[in-house]
Q: What sequence folds into this?
């Protein structure tokens, strides 16, 4: 019996043969990743002869995994925790934006050559643009200064947003700010994470983005900003996607703010990777539907 991929919505099938090109995810853990269903749904829909699988690669296994990509002719991979920074030294080329961010989430193989990209920031930018239009000259308060925040800060600063950043550990926000300034020339002002300072800035900004893990399962009852600071002039985006409706987003909605959940970032970063590998823009609605379903089933 031949292996097949089936689109569970349309019933359409796709054969997996000896010609099928393989893409994948390397990281640990990867068991609950939504990337395989998200990409495979598009391969079936677009009749592309690719399959996407998850490879659990432990911390020490990275060099072997990279060798495997080359020796087994894997077309490309997404890279996730704990390899996003470590992978850089094994690549032949790292694109400028990934180098600035200091992390790679997408690798493309061409012959023996591996090139690294970062599509995390593009995910947030596209998701935001989809809801509010242009980002240029919009004022944005970014909460957090970890890996995700770095990708968002560089991408939005370069897209012309007027950026502010606030983090529990103020020194990390200062470091990110000076890094962005040094590498892009854009000023990213830091705001102390004190109620008074946050209240003042949130009153004025167009967009608030949570890139911290606050509110993530199992701490759904937590929120990075208290409800009384939300207002209807605000667009609030949360990159947490477990759960999709975080306390922050529920309270923002109640205050009349526009909200954007973490699904958009996931889907648009995946779409950008898909395009890097295949040269084809994927059907976004198919990706969204597959991602939402996979999240619901987790
Ligand atoms: P990621 O790669 O997802 O960004 P990370 O690098 O571990 O993950 O960053 C997590 C972010 O969430 C950091 O900005 C962290 O703040 P610190 O730099 O002070 O550690 C923030 N964060 C995590 N838990 C938090 C909490 N309970 N309150 C406030 N910020 C928190």
A:
């Amino acid at each position: 019996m031949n292996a097949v991929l089936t689109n569970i919505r349309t019933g359409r099938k796709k054969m997996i043969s000896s010609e099928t090109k393989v893409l994948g995810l390397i990281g640990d853990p990867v068991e609950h990743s939504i990337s395989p269903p998200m990409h495979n749904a598009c391969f079936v829909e677009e009749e592309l002869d690719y399959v996407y699988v998850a490879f659990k690669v432990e911390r020490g296994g990275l060099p072997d995994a990279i060798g495997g990509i080359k020796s087994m002719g894997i077309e490309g991979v997404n890279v996730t925790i704990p390899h996003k920074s470590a992978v850089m030294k094994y690549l032949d080329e790292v694109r400028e934006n990934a180098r600035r961010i200091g992390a790679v989430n997408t690798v493309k193989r061409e012959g023996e050559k591996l090139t690294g990209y970062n599509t995390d920031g593009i995910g947030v930018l596209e998701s935001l643009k989809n809801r509010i239009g242009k980002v240029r000259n919009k004022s944005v308060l970014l909460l957090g200064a970890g890996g995700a925040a770095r990708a968002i800060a560089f991408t939005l600063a370069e897209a012309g947003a007027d950026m502010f950043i606030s983090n529990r550990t103020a020194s990390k926000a200062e470091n990110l700010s000076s890094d962005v300034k040094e590498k892009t020339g854009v000023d990213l002002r830091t705001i102390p994470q004190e109620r008074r300072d946050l209240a003042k800035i949130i009153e004025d900004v167009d967009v608030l983005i949570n890139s911290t893990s606050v509110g993530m399962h199992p701490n759904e009852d937590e929120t990075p900003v208290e409800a009384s600071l939300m207002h209807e002039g605000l667009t609030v985006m949360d990159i947490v996607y477990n759960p999709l409706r975080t306390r922050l987003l529920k309270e923002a909605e109640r205050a009349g703010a526009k909200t954007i959940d973490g699904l958009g970032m996931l889907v648009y970063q995946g779409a950008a990777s898909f395009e890097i590998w295949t040269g084809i823009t994927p059907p976004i609605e198919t990706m969204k539907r597959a991602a939402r379903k996979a999240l619901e089933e987790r």
